[in-house]
Specification:
The chain is mainly α. It is built from 17 helices and no strands. Helix 1 packs antiparallel against helix 8.
Length: 479
């Protein structure tokens, strides 16, 4: 997420207070990540445990995309302008209420409605969390603040599958999953209390407004293709990581703890690729790593369709995490690469991602209904291959550094006598004291002048630095 202008930062505090405040904030983010991640890969399993068909489980998982899409389309000037502490508190309360509804119901339809409600909580948290991270940081630290926020968030999310499997295993059957959703509700309520008690109130200077986003500025086949790749990334996350892989583990008869361990392995690979893959892509470009991730994902997904052993399933889930992470972060980098204006481009990216989340679940459900889980996996492999063809057609989007033009020969430092000649040629009368001052000023800033001359700026014109210094002195040191 980004914005054209950074909202007002928190009131200035001493360095120890600021560090303590940031630690409390990151602790709240970590707790929220655990709360949001506990049930994410188990939602499809709760639907089937309550009697729903696996195809409907896929549709329920995808239903969160409805609320995310609604917020991203109509709330681009609402969520970022909310008071940050209130936004984070409300987000976790809303998500917790959704988890509680899933815990107490015996109908998978209610689970679907609760999933939509949780989407509103997730949208509030991501919008408010990133902005509070920025507001608590100095201007020169915004990039690092967002990176630390993401690290704390995804560390909590990655722990979720393992913790969820351990909790669900304490009670057999659907009751274990319902207990897990109840625990998730409690964790989110605790997170909301922590956010309200530990975080500062940091309002925005702008009034929240609900309305459609301004022009997204998506023009050209390459930009539209990148948005399709962004949607594909969310379709892989929704359809593969959160639906087909958990349902396949259930089909293999895996218990909650082994299944949670396999999903934890997927999450660790996912988060690791998101964290380290972008750095590698910044150095090597986007096309090659994205193409490799898509090809790898197609191979792994097709292999999962033939897996009948829990150990191989766990290894396959770990391998699939590479593609899940890469297809999330690389398209957003490509979107920024091609953007003339980043803010509307990222708004378009978020909308494309929401559509992809919906489409991924719908396609997974359709595949399950038509050919079962194994057939749906093969269909997902085909979708990844189509993404590979599109990625190769888009080509490289990262700008390559151009070689700097050869540096001009440095202008020799003129002696003080030459300053006198230059002054005389320009009809400038200087006392010896002023002449010495002009020469000293030029000598002092000589290194800076040479660095300026070395800059490859085509609009700069050559200047006679000694003459400029003389004129400046003649005016009494005023511009």
């Amino acid at each position: 997420m980004t914005a054209g202008s950074v909202p007002r930062t928190a009131p200035r505090q001493t360095a120890p207070d600021q560090r303590s405040l940031r630690r409390r904030f990151h602790g709240v983010v970590l707790l929220a990540g655990v709360g949001f991640g506990l049930t994410a890969p188990f939602t499809a399993l709760l639907v089937t445990a309550l009697g729903g068909h696996p195809a409907w489980a896929a549709y329920v998982v995808a239903s969160m995309g409805l609320s995310l899409l609604l917020v991203d389309v109509s709330g681009t000037r609402f969520v970022p302008r909310l008071e940050s502490r209130a936004a984070l508190t409300a987000s976790m309360l809303v998500f917790g209420v959704g988890s509680l509804l899933s815990a107490v119901t015996t109908s998978w339809v209610v689970v679907g409605l609760a999933r939509v409600l949780q989407g509103f909580g997730a949208a509030l948290f991501m919008g408010g969390g990133v902005l509070l991270a920025v507001r608590l940081a100095d201007e020169e630290e915004h990039g690092g603040a967002i990176g630390t926020f993401n690290a704390a968030w995804f560390a909590g999310v990655a722990f979720g599958p393992l913790g969820g499997g351990l909790v669900a295993a304490t009670v057999p059957g659907a009751d274990g999953l319902r207990l897990l959703f109840a625990v998730c509700a409690v964790v989110n309520v605790l997170g909301a209390v922590a956010a309200w008690r530990l975080l500062p109130r940091v309002p925005s200077r702008l009034r929240p407004r609900i309305g459609l986003p301004r022009g997204l500025g998506v023009r050209g086949a390459r930009r539209w293709s990148v948005l399709v790749l962004a949607g594909l990334g969310q379709a892989v996350r929704s359809g593969l990581a959160l639906t087909l892989i958990p349902l396949l583990g259930e089909q293999l008869g895996m218990g909650w703890v082994p299944l949670g361990t396999a999903l934890f392995a997927l999450a660790v690979a996912d988060v690791s690729v998101m964290h380290f893959g972008t750095r590698w892509a910044d150095r090597r470009g986007r096309r090659v790593p994205l193409a490799l991730a898509l090809a790898w994902g197609a191979l792994v997904t097709a292999g999962l369709a033939a897996v009948g052993d829990p150990v191989l399933f766990t290894l396959g889930a770990l391998a699939a995490g590479v593609t899940v992470g890469a297809t999330w972060v690389l398209p957003v980098a490509m979107t920024v690469d091609l953007a003339a204006d980043r803010e509307p481009a990222l708004a378009a990216y978020r909308i494309a991602s929401d559509v992809g989340m919906l489409a991924g679940g719908l396609l997974a459900g359709a595949g399950i209904a038509a050919a079962g889980i194994d057939g749906a996996l093969l269909g997902m492999a085909g979708l990844l291959l189509a993404g590979l063809v599109l990625a190769l057609a888009v080509g490289e989007t990262a700008s390559r550094p151009t070689s700097a033009p050869p540096l001009e020969e440095p202008v020799p430092l003129p002696p003080i006598e030459q300053f006198a000649v230059l002054a005389d040629n320009q009809d400038i009368s200087l006392t010896p004291e002023r002449l010495a001052q002009a020469h000293a000023a030029h000598t002092r800033y000589r290194a800076d002048l040479e660095r300026l001359r070395a800059l490859p700026l085509p609009f700069t014109e050559p200047v006679t630095e000694p003459s400029t210094a003389l004129a400046w002195i003649q005016q009494g040191g005023r511009p």
